[in-house]
Structure formats: C-alpha cells, structure tokens
Predict the structure of Iron-containing alcohol dehydrogenase.
Amino acid sequence: MQPFSFATTAQILCETGAAQRLANLCSERGARRVLIVTDPGIARLGMLDDVLPGFTLAKVAVAIFSEVTADPSQACVLAAVERARHIGADLIVGFGGGSSMDVAKLVALLAHPQCDQPITELYGVDKAKGQRLPLIQVPTTAGTGSEVTPIAIVTTGDTTKMGVVSPLLLPDLAVLDAVCTLGLPPAVTAATGIDAMVHAIEAYTSKLKRNPLSSLLAREALRLLASNLDQAVHNGSHLAARQAMLLGACLAGQAFANAPVAAVHALAYPLGGHFHIPHGLANSLVLPHVLRFNLPVAMADYAELAQPLLGERLQAGDQQSRADQFVHELAQLGSRCDLPITLRAVGVPKESLAQLASDAMQQQRLLVNNPRVLTEADALAIYEAAY
C-alpha cells in the first residue's frame, strides 16, 4: 500500500431538521457575533426564517450577507469579508450551495483579526497562513461537497477562475439537513446530484492520490446518489431521498478532497467561465464523452463502479461488459432528469469549441489526475462529441 494522508471536516451532523439548532451549534462554539453567508435566492425564499429566531433565544447576535452570486467574484468575497469585520464576527456560517460555502471559507480566513494576507496571495495550493474564524457549513444543495473540502473557487476575470486550496479551509462542522434542500427545483436537484456523482467517479479513478479511504467513500457515495437521484428529482418532497443525496454528496466531497477530480471538471470549467452554464450542468454535458475517452485506460475501475451505480440492474458479464453498462447508464442520466444533453442546446456556439479546448488545457491542476493523458486535440474532440 502506498503511503497517503486523509483530511476532512472535523464534525458532520447528518440529521433532518438539524439546521433549526444552528444558533445553539454556534453558541456551543463560544460564538457571540455570527455572520451567515448566503445568496439572494435563499433570503428571498425565506429559507432562514426558521433558523433566525433561535439566535435571539441563544443570545447570539447574527447578521446576514446575502449577496453571493453564482461563480462568486473576488469583489463579492471582499464585500463579505468587510461585512464580517464590520460586525466583529467571531464565527462564520456558509448557508447555501457551493458558491456560498466557498465564500464563507474565505471570509473565515480573511476576516480573522490577525490575517494580513491579501486574497491575491491565497490562490494556489497551501498558500494560506495563520488562523481562521470558526466555520460551520449548511449545504442547501446535494452537489458540491464544499462542506468537507479544503477548496474555494473564485472568479478572477471575465472567464477565468482560480482556486484556494488549504487545510485551513476545512470547516469545523458540516450540518446535513434535507429540509434545507426541499425548495430546490428538479433541474437544480438533477444537475447538482450529477455533479456529486462525478466527484465520486473522478475520485475513484484519480491517478495520483487515490487511496483506500477515498475509494471506499467514493463507492458508497455513488451508491447513495444513484439509488436516490430519480426520487429526489421527480418527487422533490421525499425527505429520505434528499437526506441520502446530502450524505452521498458529502461522502463524494470527502473522496475528491483527498483524491482530486480530473478531466470532466477541467472541461466543465470553461463552459461556466464563458457561458455561465451552472457547474453541475456543465459536468453533465461533458461526462459521457469524457468517460468514453477514458474507457480504454479506466475499464477496470468503471467495471467496479458499475455495481454501486446500477445495483440489481447490473447484468452479468465480463469486465468490458460491466464497464460499457456503467458508461451507458451515465450517458442516459441527463435526459432521464430532463436536463439539456448537448452544448448546442445550452447556447454554446460551435465556433467557440477551439477556445474552450484551449482554456481546458489551462486546468493542469486537474488534468494530471485523469487516468488517460488528454491533449488539446482530445479536448476539442470531446467538445465536438458533446455538441
């Protein structure tokens, strides 16, 4: 066995209704002034209405920063940091999807009284120094796994994104409460669920850092996600299915935080950067074509993952047969969940494919993890197949 290291969020609370105890969870950690980082949709839908009264009862002051946008910019992060400093926040809560949780991580770091690093010095791996404020994450989508990852993604230009990767970004507590996901539209439930499945698949096949723990988590994540996605999408009030999806996304997050993702994500990022296609949907659009590209090299892994993906529907056969069933099943997911399945359908012009391929090659941090070496010509062929 190769030596490996594994890091994750210190505590995970998986319980339907647990978010109503958020104030007490903050108080138990000594908090007196809390900033909740979220997005306008969460605030508009009143998803914090049941959570906020508890802060008055717990005698904990609370403020809300609700201006997080999808693909949050550096300016958005700095505005949230300024709000945290202004109220003297001593604990940060991320309440929302991946964007809100990513911003919350950086706020906890940059708003610490002793932090003297500008955000521009944080981009990259292990550049963050010092301490951060206590951090609790409450995901409202079963997708990103950001509640258990040491990564925050920031939009730094018109079409470019950069990552901050540091163990300092791992939260103190992740609260998995399916009630927080009940308002999700079917399309968002589907796209974020597929995103989580991609995390599990890419962690399982990650070339450099996969390890026994990440692989164990990835398999169980895929089983939970695959067996509950249809129910969560088509019967959105099914709490048990939504709780299982949250746990699956969390386990997948733990897996890819330690065995990083690869070409699906590398090709999805430029779609978000240029055309603002939501991240989960971008993953869904390129997933079948990257799987087919990787199949000659990743056949054994895909054959092993066919069982947690298909369960009793897996037909007996050799390794090639099981791997083919795995790829075929995932290729059907988008249409089964009523998502667009081609780049053309989401407004990507054909003349942009070469630029997308060029941009994807900038994601070497991810591409080094892909089981098969991928060139710019390969990336272009995958985009053309997805078109």
In short: The domain at 185-386 is CATH 1.20.1090.10 (Dehydroquinate synthase-like, alpha domain). The beta strands are 11-14, 33-37, 61-65, 91-96, 124-125, 135-139, 151-155, 161-165, 173-176.
